[in-house]
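Q: Could you fold this chain for me?
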Amino acid sequence: MQSRDEEKVFREVAEVPLPHTNGLIEREWKLKRGRKDDLAGYETKFSRDSESANFNLVFYKYPPDIRKEEIKGRKSKWLTKIADASQFSKVISIIESNLPDTHLYKILKAHSNDQLKEKLKVIFGLRDRKNVAVLDAKTTQPLIIGLGEPSPYETGITLDFLTGLPIIPGSAVKGIARRAAIMILSGDTDVLPYGEEFEKLAKEYDQDERVVEIFGTQDQKGKVIFMDAYPVDWENALDGKLFRVDIMNPHYGPYYSSKGWDKKEGKPVPPADWYDPNPIFYLTVNERVTYRFILASRDKNLLDTAYKWLKFALENIGVGAKGNQGYGVFEVDAN
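A: Sure. Below is the predicted structure, expressed as structure tokens.
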């Protein structure tokens, strides 16, 4: 007869598609009383060749079971493990060889700036490569795009479906360039790029001719193309890693969840220091990772203006979540 505290081992294997073969992620659970919801121990590991798996699939489709409150503390270890195990230089070289020649990342990696402009000129149907602008910028702080995306981890990150790389969508690039435009045109470059004060400026300067022509309106398409930005170099990143695990540590959960008032007790709930902190671990792009941004337009003057606004945005506003804490700021390559 099985004793009350006797442990059983439960194993499950998840198959992860690879370019040339199939890799496996193995999960091993040590269960008390044979119940999966009563864990005594827990381990998730990569099998052979799984370091080459698409990171997007590993992150979103094959996470460990972190739904239970008692095992949430293991989330940081798992995020660290998959960030380390992905070995992106190896992964990308394998995946890149299987990408179609027309995939943007392959084009970005395979050409120098002049060759890249010539290639994109043909793709966009432009007359001159001067109608394409290439901007390389290096993260000076962690970068997180898609923090609020639904995921098994409470927090998400925007990853390219085919390569698994952390991309910056063209819509986000366009959005920060527009914010920079409002700040520059208003002459108030010290205003925060959000909030009521900024929205008042936006209403005034959104009708500026250059803003309308570059970004468009609901009735008119913009004349500048903002492409998705890809990381193209992370050899000089901290510890040589593309990703890092970060943490936010809210202390005032009861205050925020009750909106400052306990309806049951009929009394205020203060934002007090005696509440237990709730550490939340999440994945970010590391510091000193170089991204390549692409703009294109048939109008060279509009292109130059958009490039100037984007450069200001990357250096002064930042892109992605937690911008008010300095995240997402870049150092633009002088070349």
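A (continued): The chain is about 30% helix and 25% strand.
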